[in-house]
Amino acid sequence: MDTPDCENSLTTLNSFKETTIQSGHTVLLRLPNGETKGFKVEKDATVSIGRVGSFRANELIGQPYGLTYEIQGKELTVQSPRTLQEVEETDATNELINDDEFVQPLTLDEIEALKNSGVHASEIIKAQIEQHANYSLKTEYSKEKYRQRKEAKYSKTFSTVEPTIYNVCDHWFKKDQNRIRDIRPDTLSQILNLANIRPGGRYIVVDEASGLLVSAILERLGGEGRLISICDVDSPPAYPVMTLMNFRKDVVTKIHSSLNWATAQEDYTPASALPQELSSEVGKSDRHRIRLDKRKIAADTLTNAREELFAGEYDALVIASDYDLPDILENLVPYVAGSGSVVVQSPFSQPLTELQSKLRFNPNYLAPSITESWLRRYQVLPGRTHPTMNASGSGGFLLHALKVYDDPNASRVPSHRQSKRRKKEANEGDSSTPQTLESYDARELEEEDVIVADEEGQTSEMEQPS
């Protein structure tokens, strides 16, 4: 059984990400209307969610993700999960319904008065349903939709969303898909699959999608492996997507390093070279020694990251950038190991089409192909399962290729397999006629010469005119 391995992987993942809400986390809250918003949870602070209400952040600290709360004053009350119920078919239709201003006699002033008096949202919805003139004429499906719209308007409930890469990617795609280069959750899953991202792997990423690729790879690594990101700023970039993931900083610092395009060049000497003076030099102030220690740590981190990058043998290169793609590949692909994946994402097909045409004539790349992800969302409810009316047009395009070594001196695979088979047959043969290793090698050379001669003879016969 693989139970111990599963337990070890779960322990590693739990040590990389907190399973409960802690002070300093940025938590995604799902509001009654279905939207998700991020809020910073600080100890002894007050979190305000607009018209839904406000509450003390201390009530969320230490709680697991996924619970639903209702705001009552400044206090939070945990709500029990709601179950789906079957909707019975009736003979009612909506053809006789006339939704004019006289259908709902309950005025806005009266509704505001009910809200100010502290009446529960369910009582307000019940009052609106009772005074609705055409509510009884609606079908059961229309009644359910009406109640849901009113709950989204008057309810003071919210749910905490677990910070998985799927939830965070879906949140950012709905919020501002241009910030993440139109990468939908299904496109992101294809990127991770094509690049073969796994715990313990070593990867290079060029991320201009607000840190979405970096966050996804870090979550998949689970605290084990190595990731080097290439950016265009001197200091480590502030990825807005990563703030919602709530990774442990000590673990991220251990497995993730950032280099800019200048420091990623082997012939470049970093300008922030460590001064010759020592931090423990006598006569220096404490502030000056602390500053020198920080500069030494930063210089050592940069040096180690460059040495790791230049050592190469990385498992994959993942790119989502607006810079010139052939130049990026020329600079970074040499550090990818043989059979390593190269994955390039773009919101448009033209850059990838031009890149593909160049890679086809490059012997260092195998099978460059372009794919476009397509997604259709469904509403899944009892008796009401159907595609949603609105859908996103595209999740971007992906180019995938494998790096291979262009070695003309490599042995032919068929002859290599034949020689191994012949050795095995000779070892299993008659032991009364022992043969030395030199005799085996001589026989293999003779057979390879025969194979080459046969191929040359076939070629000359094909070239002779008929």
TrEMBL record:
Question: From start to end residue, where is composition biased (Polar residues)?
Answer: 429-438
Q: Principal localization?
A: nucleus
Ranges of Basic residues compositional bias? 414-424
Q: Show the ranges annotated as biased composition (Acidic residues).
A: 444-458
InterPro entries attached here? SAM-dependent_MTases_sf, TRM6
Instruction: State the residue spans of region: Disordered.
Output: 408-466
Q: Which GO terms describe its cellular component?
A: nucleus; tRNA (m1A) methyltransferase complex
- What are its GO biological-process terms? tRNA methylation
Q: Is the keyword Nucleus assigned to this protein?
A: yes
Gene3D superfamilies recorded = 3.10.330.20, Vaccinia Virus protein VP39 (3.40.50.150)
PANTHER family named in the record: TRANSLATION INITIATION FACTOR EIF3-RELATED, TRNA (ADENINE(58)-N(1))-METHYLTRANSFERASE NON-CATALYTIC SUBUNIT TRM6
Which protein family is named in the record? Belongs to the TRM6/GCD10 family.
Question: What protein name is recorded for this chain?
Answer: tRNA (adenine(58)-N(1))-methyltransferase non-catalytic subunit TRM6
Q: What is the lineage of its organism?
A: Eukaryota, Fungi, Dikarya, Basidiomycota, Agaricomycotina
